[in-house]
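Supplementary Note 3. Input sequence used for the single-chain structure prediction.
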Amino acid sequence: MNKAFKWTALSLGTLVGIAHIGVLGHLLKPSHTQTPNIKIPEGPYSSYNITVNRDGYQIEYRADDPLVLESERSMDSDENRTGFLGGRTRTTSEYRSDQYTRNGVRNLGGETTEGGKSVTDIECIVADAGARSQGAMAGNAIAAGVIAPAVSGIPYVGWLAAGWATLLGNEVGASIGSEVGSVFNDC
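The predicted structure, written as discrete structure tokens, is reproduced below.
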């Protein structure tokens, strides 16, 4: 039994020694940091940046890049003016720089408020309210001054038709004022 004990101890010692050498070889080998194989969706407006170091990796991905497109325009014009003592030419220049989203909408600036509406949206709402009010007053004045006297001569219902014409002028004026205001305020 003494011989079997020696062979068992020698076999067990050899196995533990080989295991230690394998573990030390695994721990001491230089580690190579690799980028994981990630399928990043690519499109015509996407961009990404991958940074890899010993501590890990970092991916910065933008699905809609560029977010803002810029357009610059300049125009020179010559104006000829003839006056009392002769003519003179004056050159004027105009420069305009605009930013657009990819959908073609002009960026009017402004940040989003808590309610979800941007400052530009709020300014457009205020401008629309003012334009509707001015249009309603103009439509009311035209209807009361031109249409109401013409329809007030209708027997029995003239007074009613004059009121309806004034209300119709008010509504039409508000609608036209809103459309004109949206064009002039870029809303």
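The chain is about 45% helix and 25% strand. The two ends are 100 Å apart (CA to CA).
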